Automatic annotation (TrEMBL):
Protein name per its UniProtKB record: ABC transporter ATP-binding protein
Entry keyword annotation includes Membrane: yes
Alphabetized UniProt keyword annotations: ATP-binding, Cell membrane, Membrane, Nucleotide-binding, Transport
Organism for this UniProt entry: Methylobacillus methanolivorans
Boundaries of every ABC transporter domain copy: 1-233
Amino acid sequence: MTSELQLDISQQRPFALKAALNCKAGELLALLGPSGCGKSTLLRMIAGLQHAESGYIRLSDEFWCNEVIKLTPQQRHIGYVPQHYGLFPHMTALQNVKAALHGLPSQEQSTRAQTWLGKVKLSDLAHRKPATLSGGQQQRVALARALAAHPSILLLDEPFSALDSMTREDLYRTLAELKPQLNIPMILVTHNLHEAQLLADHIAVMGQGCILQQGTPDAIMQRPVSRAVAAQVGLRNIFSSTVISATENHSLLSLGSQTLAVPHRLSVGLTIEWCVPHHALLLTNQHEEAAHLTGNIDQCILLGDQWLISINLPGTTQRIELQCANSMPLAIHQPVSMVLNTEHIHILQA
């Protein structure tokens, strides 16, 4: 029988936290948010290391935590991978994995530990101690140890954040290869949007102790529900406008001293927030009639083969940011015009 993690918990102390989510067997859910937003605390509550003031956590029909029940981490049979490996320094890689299998006969411990070290590509290093392994190799041992005991759920607490980018990419690949074999819920705590997009089936964006939005990576990126979520997923062009007029299929928005027609029917007089991704903006010839917006370059920074440009808009303190090829001749205070693909405009909820 496949399992599903469900929780609905809240607390006020030591800090406010409120969360409701679910994660099905075989799925990886990423808890995405900045430091201090509550994601690691939520993971510790799922693990049984902390308890919420109210609510419940359950795996399918078995309650792990409610007003009466408070199962220990051992009773929940958790597979846990911490940020800094948590290996026993006096043990070899093989012995570290076997340490999670102490309830099994010795020969079965060895066989299963060797199998899982092979799955994380460390068979040749089974008899090395942690101090002689790289950070990425130590994290592979920690992953093998967490999975060797066939846990009911896998919890990953920022396991890749201490690693260099090349090592992280290798571990992403390893986890992606293992994922189809793991018919259990998997929860990853991360502040890395790229990591969440690569690995997660669903993302729960967290902020100030609550879940701001849940959905697939594409849904979160393309349809953020609020300014806070849009900012967390890297959307820099977030604006506030008043609806000047509207027809059946379009509305006219104010943007400083300029106007912008968008393919949304909105209420006249309403002040809305909206966002648009970088790729929906394009610099164009200043005198081209098709240009939607004009402004003056406030800042231009060369990043690799791209300019990152900030543009002041007349009549407002709001700015537009976009990227373009470094072959374009640009300068501070230069007047520019932009085409904005309004099909990519997303209206944020009030």
